[in-house]
Specification:
With 355 residues, this protein is of the alpha+beta class. The chain has 2 domains: 136 residues, D-amino Acid Aminotransferase, Chain A, domain 1 (2-Layer Sandwich); 158 residues, D-amino Acid Aminotransferase, Chain A, domain 2 (Alpha-Beta Barrel). It contains 11 helices and 15 strands. The longest helix has 16 residues. It is globular, with a radius of gyration of 23 Å. The structure holds pyridoxal-5'-phosphate (PLP). The site of pyridoxal-5'-phosphate has 11 residues, from helix 8. One of its GO terms (molecular function) is catalytic activity. Keywords: Pyridoxal phosphate. Its cofactor is pyridoxal 5'-phosphate.
Length: 355
């Protein structure tokens, strides 16, 4: 739309705005200002970032930026994923100067599936993306935290179509995070924010506004987070977690993944939980459609997601789940995942030699 002449701010008007003197910085001044923000003496939360825009790694948080004309920024044309950085090998004879990325390959596979659904073509083959992530983690020296990475249609202009973006972009950042096993139960609500349609819910794209609003709604109502129910009345997922139930018959039940994000932690839980079936603690492990009524009658309920790895849910829409206390089977499943994270099978360990 054309702006009318009355919308145009003239140079003399700008000069007259003495009350609002917006500084115009030189590159040196701006760099100094950005660094001031991070040099407060506190430990820096982001030890390292990679950007394909400059083709390398920076350890300076003041330079951990992405271009404003990147289509991921102004159009949401980007996908992302994560992995957990852990040094807790859980055994005494392994050098402590090594860490690993838990389930990196599973996350990378989902990342590339998301990119393909979003029609974003990676600037690098999978092996290069993986190598960049391993090198970034090594350089960061981070022993416990998360790795987050994005594929974007890239910088170029402010249009919708990525046709004017010469090359897609890959960004990754290491975040120090001292997470620990969650053993306290939380309260949840049913979200009134409409959930994403299956196409958008099954790809991990950067459009998380419904998820943000859903968490904010929960917080406003004194809960920790929320649960989405789909239009057919089946349980879907939480805003950044999957959800699982233990029925009164000791069945571990997870909602099917066809309309929601296929959680890497939930998938790993489904692989590990049969151990509890072998021990006679659980009867069966399955994914299926779960109605709200079945879910609310569960004996135990939990969120399932990367850093938790399980978070017990004890109250839903003001009603207790089971006896309203953290369930024993929830804790047993949480232990299975936590031990797996700390000392996972050889195939899951991605050794990161710190430099
Ligand atoms: C919407 C949504 N569902 C589920 C999950 C859980 O996935 P994961 O176990 O891979 O962290 C996430 C987190 O990434 C998510 O954002």
């Amino acid at each position: 739309m054309e702006s009318s002449s009355s919308d145009v701010i003239t140079a003399s008007e700008i000069e007259n705005c003495s009350h609002l003197q917006v500084p115009v910085y030189s590159s040196e001044e701006l760099f100094e200002k950005l660094q001031e923000k991070w040099n407060s003496g506190k430990k820096k939360p982001y030890p390292a970032m990679y950007s394909s825009v400059f083709g390398g790694i920076t350890l300076d948080p003041a330079l951990m930026v992405i271009p404003i004309d990147d289509h991921m920024v102004h159009r949401g044309h980007g996908v992302f994923d994560t992995a957990i950085i852990f040094d807790g090998w859980g055994v005494v004879d392994v050098k402590l100067d090594q860490g690993y990325l838990y389930e990196l390959d599973v996350h990378l596979d989902r990342f590339l599936r998301s990119a393909s659904k979003a029609k974003i073509f990676s600037p690098f083959p999978r092996s290069t993306l993986r190598s960049i992530l391993v090198q970034l983690t090594a350089v960061s020296q981070c022993k416990k935290g998360t790795l987050r990475y994005w594929l974007s249609s890239g910088p170029g202009n402010f249009l919708l179509s990525p046709a004017g973006c010469p090359i897609s972009a890959f960004y990754a950042i290491v975040i120090d995070d001292d997470f620990s096993q969650c053993k306290e139960g939380v309260k949840v609500i049913t979200s009134t924010i409409p959930m994403k349609s299956p196409l958008f819910a099954t790809m991990k794209n950067v459009n998380y506004l419904p998820n943000v609003l859903s968490v904010m709604e929960a917080e406003e109502k004194g809960a920790s987070a929320s649960i989405w129910v789909d239009e057919e009345g089946y349980i879907a997922e939480g805003p950044n977690v999957n959800v699982a139930f233990i029925t009164q018959d000791k069945e571990l039940v997870l909602p099917s993944f066809d309309k929601i994000l296929s959680g890497c932690t939930a998938k790993r839980l489904l692989e590990l939980a049969p151990k509890l079936v072998e021990q006679g603690l659980l009867k069966i492990v399955k994914t299926t459609n779960v109605t709200v009524e079945e879910a609310k009658n569960a004996a135990e309920m939990m969120y399932v997601g990367s850093t938790l790895p399980l978070l017990p849910i004890i109250m839903w829409d003001g009603q207790p789940i089971g006896d309203g206390r953290v369930g024993e089977l929830t804790l047993a499943l949480s232990d299975l995942l936590w031990v797996d994270m700390k000392a996972g099978p050889e195939t899951q360990r991605l050794s990161v030699p710190y430099v």
